[in-house]
Amino acid sequence: MVKNTLPSMRPAAALILSLALAAPSVLAQEVKEDSVVLQPDKVTDDAPVVVAPVALPAWSEANATALLSAIEGAGDEGLFAKDYNPDDLAAAIMSKDQARLDKVATDAFLLFATHLRDGRTPNAARKQWFMVDSDDTDEPLLPLLTNALATNNVAQALAGLDPVHPDFAVLKASLKKAKTPAEANGIRVNIERWRWMPRDLGERYVVSNVPEYLTRVIHGGTTIATHKAVVGKASTPTPQLNPMATGVIVNPTWTLPRSIINEGIGATIANNPASARRQGYTWTGSGKTLSVVQQPGANNALGVMKMEMLNPHAIYLHDTPSKGAFAAAARAFSHGCIRTERALHFSGLMAVYFAGKSPEEFGEAIASGKTTRFGFEQPFPVYVAYWTVVPDGKGGVKKLADIYGRDAPVVASFAKQGRPAGALIAPPPPEVVPTVQTTARATTPGTSGIY
């Protein structure tokens, strides 16, 4: 259930919040918040990790057959069975050659498990994807393999690598019902994107799905609020990342990036400083050394709140005075940051649920007009995601517009080799030290000193 209310507040604080929630949209203004800092795509795949010298695990015929069965069902996972050499595995099982079976089965398991855990798509096809995925540390594959063979649970071990979020299960179920190759590929792309993220998103987090133009607040594993979002336009697209949120700032100041100073406010400061001051700007220096800060107020480009989430892309969630933009169906208007509808409500949730403040404290901070930071007791991730196929709420899925054209490179990668995986290399046999034979020496008692 989505909750859009805060605990009761004192009258003044409650009035501020209720007016913010009920206020009609105003006409959009030309507001330029911080511009995204475009980073180069990661085009190199992680180098295969060679674990050596480790003896290859021993595969029983039953365990190898279970692996073969799982590989043959890879299509249900949005993957491709041919990638994992099922014919070679079947031949190794039939050969009764233990060394061959151990090598072929181990290689197939590690590659299949890597793609299940981390995704098949090479980095070069993951456009502007900067999320940090710790699954390789949290779910190491060698202990998984060792345990699977010891307990004869190969299939269960592989199935346990799936993301735990229910949306992922909906996508997998929908893949089996896809009517066209294009529809199937669209679902596969988004199954892949789930695997590029941490397997478990956590009990508390904020997630913004860029193609959906929505931001959701998750607390205790439940969605407690949903807010419309304005995201980056095509020329300044919002990248995908998962920084930790450490606090929320109400009545924030705005330090203008150089690009926006150059676009116009620098000239206004030089030619009409009184106008710049009326808009809340203060500055130091001039020309190339000009530094400009907009003070809190009605004209501030960040509105009444900014989520504190440090990242090298200069991306964060914030309010905006351009409320009219939220009325549009397609909301790709920003310079890369994510503008958040009903920002007072959003920042109130942050302050109360995550910073441990009372509604009264939050309301008084807003009313003061002063910049106030509410630090979170436990920082949590903000997932800026990019899913173009999502659950429709009726047991199926719906397709969203691919606003940045990021699906096509992933689809194209399906016809190419996927990401590599680590390989186990058996240790060399121990060095053979030749035995030196010596001739026994005959001694005469009393002459050798040894009795």
From TrEMBL:
GO terms for molecular function: carboxypeptidase activity; transferase activity. The active site is at H318, C337. The lineage of its organism: Bacteria, Pseudomonadati, Pseudomonadota, Alphaproteobacteria, Sphingomonadales. Pathway: Cell wall biogenesis; peptidoglycan biosynthesis. This is L,D-TPase catalytic domain-containing protein. The keyword Chaperone does not apply. Gene3D superfamilies: L,D-transpeptidase catalytic domain-like (2.40.440.10). Pfam families: Scaffold (PF20142), YkuD (PF03734). The keyword Manganese does not apply. Residues 1-28 form the signal peptide. Belongs to the YkuD family. InterPro entries: LD-transpeptidase_YkuD-like, LD_TPept_cat_dom, LD_TPept_scaffold_dom, Transpep_catalytic_dom. Residues 204-362 form the L,D-TPase catalytic domain. Keywords: Cell shape, Cell wall biogenesis/degradation, Peptidoglycan synthesis, Signal, Transferase. GO terms for biological process: cell wall organization; peptidoglycan biosynthetic process; regulation of cell shape.
